[in-house]
From TrEMBL:
Lineage of source species: Bacteria, Bacillati, Bacillota, Bacilli, Lactobacillales
Native source species: Streptococcus panodentis
Domain of life: Bacteria
Entry protein name: Histidine phosphatase family protein
SMART domains: PGAM
Length: 201
């Protein structure tokens, strides 16, 4: 069994301003940097030391990883970039399509506007993270910093269990997965900003 900690970046300028942020990028705010430091403190207090480190190629994820780990020896991966939201990129979040009744994600609603659908995002995340974990050490956990939408699409792709509706992948949220022979199991969802840990069955 191998351990993967899949983490969202800290707050960014676009997050603060309520703008859609997918393939486009914006820098961490001061609060975002502080959130990354809180995540670092969580890992240190939990005694979690990482082997390999990976980040999305986007600035907000790379900066978060460097603050969390204090290291620069990481690999950037396009496969864990945020969901591409097409023409909605950098637009106010209130303009986005709304979920269909009964849906748990945006599904394919961005495709007509040049964006990705949930299946595409989940599949590229699965492919990339499988390659990462096949190379990982069993003794040292792996840290990957990604994005909220991409993390949710990955969860929908691989998780057999349902999350409590109160669980959110907020800034610096950490999903602890266990990996074995091509299969991922979500073990915990950790919020290092509040100290709450949701134990998955």
């Amino acid at each position: 069994m191998k351990d993967l900690y899949l983490m969202r970046h800290g707050q960014t300028f676009f997050n603060q301003e309520g703008l859609v942020q997918g393939a486009c990028d914006s820098p961490l705010t001061e609060l975002g940097a502080e959130q990354a430091q809180q995540a670092r403190t969580y890992f240190e207090q939990a005694g979690i030391c990482f082997g390999r480190l990976y980040s999305s190629t986007q600035e907000r994820a790379c900066d978060t990883l460097e603050l969390v780990s204090g290291r620069t020896d990481y690999t950037r991966l396009k496969g864990v970039k945020e969901w591409h939201f097409g023409l909605f990129e950098a637009q106010p979040e209130r303009l986005q399509p709304t979920f269909r009744p009964g849906a748990v994600s945006f599904e394919d609603l961005f495709v007509p506007y040049g964006g990705e659908d949930a299946e595409q995002v989940g599949e590229r995340m699965l492919l990339t993270l499988t390659q990462v974990m096949d190379k990982a050490d069993r003794q040292e956990p792996t840290l990957v910093v990604s994005h909220g939408g991409a993390m949710w699409a990955f969860y929908l792709k691989v998780a057999a269990q349902a999350l409590d509706s109160k669980v959110r992948f907020g800034n610096c949220a950490i999903c602890h997965y266990q990996y074995d022979q091509g299969h991922f199991k979500l073990v915990q969802v950790i919020d290092p900003l509040t100290g709450s840990v949701y134990e998955c069955e």
